[in-house]
Amino acid sequence: MTLNDIRSKYLAFFKAQGHVVIPSAPVVPENDPTTLFTGSGMQPLVPYLLGKDHPSGKRLVNSQKSFRAMDIEEVGDNRHTTFFEMLGNWSLGDYFKKEQLPWFFEFLTKEIGLDPEKLYVTVFIGDEKNNVPRDTESAVIWKEIFSTVGIDAKDVLVGSEEEGYKKGMQGGRIFFYDAKKNWWSRAGVPENMPVGEPGGPDSEVFYDFGLPHDTKFGNECHPNCDCGRFLEIGNSVFMQYIKKKDGTFGLLPKQNVDFGGGLERIAAASNNDPDVFKTDVFENVISLLERFSGKSYSDARYIRSFRIIADHIRAATFMLADGIRPSNTERGYVLRRLIRRAVQHANKLGVAESASDESMLVKCATLFTENYSEPYPELNDEREWSNIKDEIWKEEKQFWHTLEQGMREFERMVSGDITGEQAYVLFTSYGFPFEMTFEIAKERGHAIDEAGFREYMKKHQELSRASSEQKFKGGLADHSEKTTRLHTTHHLLLKALQVVLGGHVKQRGSNITQERLRIDFSHTAKMTPEQISEVENIVNEKIREQLPVTRSILPKDRAEQLGAEHEFGAKYPDMVSVYSVGPKDATLEKPQFEQAFSLEFCGGPHVENTGDIVGSFKIQKEEAVAAGVRRIKATIQ
Question: What is the pTM of this model?
Answer without folding.
Answer: 0.71
